[in-house]
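Structural prep section.
Before we set up the soaks we want a predicted structure of the protein with V47 in place, mainly to decide which crystallisation condition to try first. Input record follows.
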Amino acid sequence: MEQLISLLDKELIPIAEKVFNGERLSFEDGLKLFESSNLTAIGMLANYVAEKKNGKFAYFNVNVHITPTNICIGTCKFCAFRKSKNDPDAYELTTEEIVKKLKDYYSQNPNLTEVHIVGGLHPDWNYNRFIEIIRAVRENFPDIHIKAYTAEEIKYIAEKGNKSVEETLHELIEAGLNSIPGGGGEIFNERIRQKICPEKITAEEYLQIHKTAHRMGLKSNATMLFGHVETYADRVDHLIRLREAQDETGGFQTFIPLAFHPLNTKIPNANYTTGVDELKTIAVSRLILDNFPHIKAYWIMLGEKVAQIALQFGADDIDGTVTEEDITQAAGARAGQSIPKSRLIKLIKEAGKIPVERDTIYNVLHIYNSEKQ
Ligand code: V47
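Run finished without errors. Recording the tokens verbatim:
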């Protein structure tokens, strides 16, 4: 600890002392961390917290993403994936096609434990169509964990059925839903939301839907889209609002900072994020979100290399095998869309951590701690 403190710039020393005493960091502390270029020391502090929470474990899972449609009435300016109904690249899968896709994935990989289902706000799909997808997946795959529908989609489905969020979640759970992904968080600050996604659910709605899900027994994840038009203060505000929501319910499992990809988007002067900014954002997230068990370095958006290094900067999860991913690909992803389990294990081991295969809710399935695995 003393050695680490000696590496820190003077203004970071009181923050480090708080971290070592287990004290909560303030908004100003978060801002100072983002404004500092003392990246290695911030990373070491974040790694200290990550290891206090999860030891040397770094998690991954065997999962697939299915995106039932790219047709969306949304107007989010950062999204390169959405299409209008008449667009030549627009598609919508039938329920049978969704099940068939999953059957094909399963036959290639019987160790699959999770399906992540998110898609567009299709103007013609009714309430039952969204429920039917979950029910069909559950009927065909009784044991798979279904992580589906972002808070934005849940609000849309509820409105389509003239139902409350509680009623909608209740029916989704009955159909087979197990947890909720973190998409739709973007940046909570209303001024930024007006610029990048003016028609999207508000931050309050996003948080309310997650808290409702938590109270109904579902776990969920949270995200933050960074590197577009937001400021450091907006990022810290986002993190602190998540921390407050987590104080109320404790239902968030992992926080996933999503690195903005600019291609084909409508964000003016958009650019790719940099390695330093990505690692700092992971580290500051770990330090501010003292009540989140996990921080995920999503390799699809960070790329394998930065995601691996992030495991020494506060992240303890690298996400999964994924297999098919469309949102980042449309916006100029430089990572692929699929990665073998053996590669995830190698990335984690070389980062000095112990690879742990988990299910979606962090039950340990296998610990890869021998030399040959
Ligand atoms: O909400 C859209 C983001 C999110 C772009 O919960 C973009 O385990 C970068 O939330 N550049 C969806 N990001 C993905 C998501 C997610 C992914 C993996 C795991 C989990 C989980 C959640 O993708 C959207 C939006 O914030 N996004 N466009 C873009 N151009």
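Observations: The radius of gyration is 20 Å.
Flagged for discussion at group meeting.
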